[in-house]
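It would be a great kindness if you could assist me with a short task in structural biology. The matter concerns a single protein, recorded as an amino acid sequence and a row of backbone structure tokens. Could you please explain, in whatever detail you think fit, how the structure tokens follow from the sequence? Thank you for your consideration; the sequence and its tokens are set out here:
___
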Amino acid sequence: MALPKAYRLKSRKDFQAVFREGIRCHSSHFTLRALKPSRPQKSSSDNDAVTIKLTKCQDLASTKIGVSISTKVSKRAVVRNRIKRQITAALSQILPKLSPGWRLVVIVKPKTAESECVSQQFLQELEQLLVKAEVINGYS
């Protein structure tokens, strides 16, 4: 099951922003890169009116998620696609718990293809990473 379109991180520019500015969390099978949503900045003008500047990240209503899996994990596309499907299935179960506005990239480590992980283990490990990065609702 794929992620809904509203939750997908698609453009190269978004991926680069997450890699450049995002925080990192590691586990045995994954690395999570997370870019926090920007907070609105308050500035006063001549009329002493408070204006709020919204950044691009703040405009996003939902958290955007991307999965990066290189050929170092496996040379076979069938194996990489299977792992990616398992990760997106696990992430779709976690979606309601996520805080809005985050941009996340899940990077799969080469060790993942060798270990024959099941979706339940992926779910548990991803949940731990999201708690560590304070992305899950109630932790940010």
In short: Residues 33 and 95 are 16 Å apart (CA to CA). The radius of gyration is 17 Å. The chain has a mean pLDDT of 82. The longest helix spans residues 77-94.
